Amino acid sequence: MPKNWNKIKLSIVIPVYNEGVNLKILLRILKALVDVPHEVLVVHDIADDDSIPVVKEIQRTYPELKLVHNTLGRGVINAIKSGVKESKGEYNLLIAADDIGPVFIIKDMIYLMDKGCDLVNATRYAYGGKNIGGVFMSQLLSRIANKLFHLISGTSLTDPTLGVKMFRRSRFNEIKLESNPVGWAVSFEFAIKAQIANWKLGEVPLISLNRIFAGKSSFRLGSWVKEYAKWFLWGMSRIRHNNSKPLVRMPRQPISQNKKC
Questions:
Q1: CB burial class (10 A; 0-12, 13-18, 19+) of residue 247?
Q2: Distance, C-alpha 252 to centroid of its chain
Q3: Exposed/middle/buried for 71, CB within 10 Å: 0-12, 13-18, 19+?
Q4: Binning pLDDT at 50, 70 and 90, where does residue 76 land?
Q5: Pairing relation of β-strands 130-133 and 65-69?
Q6: pTM for the whole thing?
Q7: Lowest mean pLDDT: which of 46-60, 167-181, 207-221, 235-249?
């Protein structure tokens, strides 16, 4: 074990709801590939979540893995708040249990954080990013919504609705998250408010491999469209009139061409 391993650099927060099969695969990949001092916080809402025995089994050989019971109320927004509260890392990373793609860009995200970014957003729609798997209607709406929001609002980010985000734990409480617990709408809200607050932002391309192993998506057309549309309209006017919004810098490809945030 490295001498500085006790100083946690990265806390990986994973909200779950009966994601046992997908989580087992994701955790084994994280254990094999993440080589910075880190912890993994699996946040569950219910006591009989099928993710819990998976975590307890893998904990035997992965001491960095922890269970967190979300007692703030159901939904991703409350799971994130619970996970961040329990985290100890300098940086926090939000990922979903059903997508293994983010594991492969952790180093790139940390690179931009180390260069001064406050929040690094993964993107499926720029720099060679892709979206593979998942629900077709959800993919279609996501692509259209992100493109329109980027063009109309003038936001720097090309995929603000995506839940894969790395940020400084010390700054998390500067932003008041208020979304209804519908899907990952909180991620969209987070991106909008971070830009309005003039955080330094970065983007890294992601090949999203969404729900390719097991399980059903929680996507519900009516409730999701309503909640995301609310933040679309709210963010569009505020970002457009924000005169001091920061710029997104190019992701690492290659290192020599990077600019500081």
A1: exposed
A2: 18
A3: exposed
A4: very high
A5: unpaired
A6: 0.88
A7: 207-221
